[in-house]
């Protein structure tokens, strides 16, 4: 089939808060169209008509798709009406679900801007979890393993720190520990419930590439013991033996994003038997 030529697409994202919801929905959709050239314009914290009107005028000039998560009714309705009058594609991300839930429950929505990001107990718990992840990163203090909601183990370059921070943003207190044959495993690890431990692994070839790139980034030769394949295989074998002794879940991160690995962890954290997810 012959491909049609296409013009660049413009997307205007409008939110009364930070705008993450609409942006993530759009990014998920655009991932299905990798060859399209996209221009994205992000307008957060739009809470007054005087701020909204110039944004919509710009959308009109750009002939843009308008995507919004405005919950204040007059702003939301004005945006929908403006786009309809100007023949602009308009997507009110929250409207249908809010309406259906309201109809099902008989309760009226708060219509409060930024309700998702309010400074409540959940917010401060998230900040506390982030601080915890920083404090107990890379096994800095073994006491953290006993206080953690989750303990991540893994050889170097298995995404322990990025995963810890991502999960901390889900209000999960995470401590992590690098695994290597020469380093003794802290006694505290053996006191942790195996249900709260996740062993991370990776393919040897992937680790080899990652570690060479890391050495180059440091201005060093890529050919070191750190990136040696025999050394990497020995590390992985040692890690697997440790995971088997602990009876913890094991996840291979080689073909997974941080988000995918985190989703597996959050859905599997109660598993007590050693489970290997290749």
From TrEMBL:
Origin superkingdom: Bacteria
Enzyme Commission code(s) on record: 2.7.11.32, 2.7.4.27
InterPro entries reported for this sequence: Kinase-pyrophosphorylase, P-loop_NTPase, PPDK_reg
Keywords: Kinase, Nucleotide-binding, Serine/threonine-protein kinase, Transferase
List of residues binding ADP: 154-161
Catalyzed reactions per annotation: N(tele)-phospho-L-histidyl/L-threonyl-[pyruvate, phosphate dikinase] + ADP = N(tele)-phospho-L-histidyl/O-phospho-L-threonyl-[pyruvate, phosphate dikinase] + AMP + H(+); N(tele)-phospho-L-histidyl/O-phospho-L-threonyl-[pyruvate, phosphate dikinase] + phosphate + H(+) = N(tele)-phospho-L-histidyl/L-threonyl-[pyruvate, phosphate dikinase] + diphosphate
Keyword field contains ATP-binding: no
GO MF annotation terms: ADP binding; ATP binding; phosphotransferase activity, phosphate group as acceptor; protein serine/threonine kinase activity
NCBIfam families assigned to the protein according to its UniProt record, in alphabetical order: PRK05339.1
Family: Belongs to the pyruvate, phosphate/water dikinase regulatory protein family. PDRP subfamily.
Listed HAMAP family: PDRP
Known role: Bifunctional serine/threonine kinase and phosphorylase involved in the regulation of the pyruvate, phosphate dikinase (PPDK) by catalyzing its phosphorylation/dephosphorylation.
Protein's name according to its UniProt entry: Putative pyruvate, phosphate dikinase regulatory protein
């Amino acid at each position: 089939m012959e491909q049609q030529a296409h013009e660049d697409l413009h997307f205007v994202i409008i939110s009364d808060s930070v705008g993450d919801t609409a942006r993530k929905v759009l990014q998920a959709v655009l991932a299905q169209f990798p060859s399209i050239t996209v221009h994205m314009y992000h307008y957060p914290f739009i809470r007054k008509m005087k701020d909204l009107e110039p944004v919509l005028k710009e959308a009109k000039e750009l002939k843009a798709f308008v995507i919004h998560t405005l919950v204040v009714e007059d702003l939301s309705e004005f945006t929908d009406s403006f786009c309809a009058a100007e023949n602009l594609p308009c997507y009110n991300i929250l409207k249908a679900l809010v309406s259906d839930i309201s109809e099902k429950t008989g309760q009226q929505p708060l219509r409060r801007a930024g309700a998702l990001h309010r400074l409540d107990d959940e917010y401060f718990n998230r900040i506390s979890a982030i601080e915890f992840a920083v404090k107990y990163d890379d096994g800095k203090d073994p006491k953290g393993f006993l206080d953690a909601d989750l303990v991540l183990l893994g050889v170097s370059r298995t995404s322990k720190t990025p995963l810890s921070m991502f999960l901390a943003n889900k209000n999960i207190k995470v401590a992590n520990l690098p695994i290597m044959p020469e380093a003794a495993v802290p006694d505290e690890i053996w006191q942790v419930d195996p249900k709260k431990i996740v062993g991370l692994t990776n393919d040897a070839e992937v680790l080899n590439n990652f570690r060479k790139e890391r050495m180059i980034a440091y201005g060093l030769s890529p050919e070191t013991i750190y990136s040696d394949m025999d050394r990497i295989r020995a590390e992985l074998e040692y890690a697997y033996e440790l995971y088997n002794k602990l009876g913890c879940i094991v996840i291979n991160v080689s073909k997974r994003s941080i988000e995918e690995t985190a989703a597996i962890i959050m859905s599997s954290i109660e598993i007590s038997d050693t489970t290997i997810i290749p």
